[in-house]
Amino acid sequence: MATMKIPMTVPSPRVDAEQLFKAFKGRGCDASVIINILAHRNAGQRALIEQEYETKFSDDLRKRLQSELHGHLKKALLLWMPEAVERDASILKQALRGAVTDHKAVAEIICTRSGSQLRQIKQVYLNTFGVRVEQDVESEASGNHKRVLLAYLNTTRYEGPEIDDKIVEDDARVLKKAVARKHKSDDQTLIQIFTDRSRTHLVALRSTYRSMFGKELGKAIRDETRGNFEHVLLTILQCAENSSFYFAKALRKSMKGLGTDDTALIRMVVTRAEVDMHYIVSEYRKRYKKSLYNAVQSDTSGHYKTFLLSLLGPNV
Fold first, then answer.
1. 93: closest CA among 115, 109, 114, 77?
2. ATP-binding: present as a keyword of the record (predicted)?
3. Which of 24, 73, 143, 178 could bridge across to 186 with cysteines, CB 3.0–4.6 Å?
């Protein structure tokens, strides 16, 4: 469920476009007006506003936002404007081919999206950037980390609710051998199971592994894998069982300690606001006894803070 609030009566795209045009006039721009409009329109409504703005004023709204806004607010609003698949493709491109490769962002986009979403992202990536996402992964990742990402991108997984208990038990035994301390970790087995099985299957596998061997599968993975490979496997496992907790934990990490990881904070708030932020907000409060709204409020400032809080919705 989404958290951003859309007015009961939404002005026409033309009215919104005209208000935005006025907000850009003069020295500087009226960021409050921009936020009040764009933070309270869904993806379809934002697309219509963009079309109307270009038609009426012969100008590109995103380019105008790029030139008029600054800092984190600009970054957040520009990420907010595209529809989800285009946005995910652009996040992947920046994460893979930016000045520094952001492996956590790559894992987040690839390993938390459904098979159908990944197929769309791959097509948009190719159409937009003229290169297959697999080629950029091949170039920027390495070893088992690269292998698991490529397998996840290219494996067609069953996405229904049914599971085969026998296969789940067989997988548990195979994984136990693969991560046994007395053997060298069988990484290809880990990759095959984690990229080939449905989320429902992985949830059952986690429970079965615990009941059969008295140990959490996640702990076994942490004990026997390292670095980006470990992170991707745990992302797949955590999102299969409770994606809301995965994002709640990642959001908390982005604001924990000295300084804020604004890139991660913006990415997660923007990409989940129209999807499942309601559940993430609830999970955050449940786990950390504090509202996500208050956490973001204390770690951000100015119009940037206003925009993110608008996407999070009321502080409930």
1. 109
2. no
3. 178
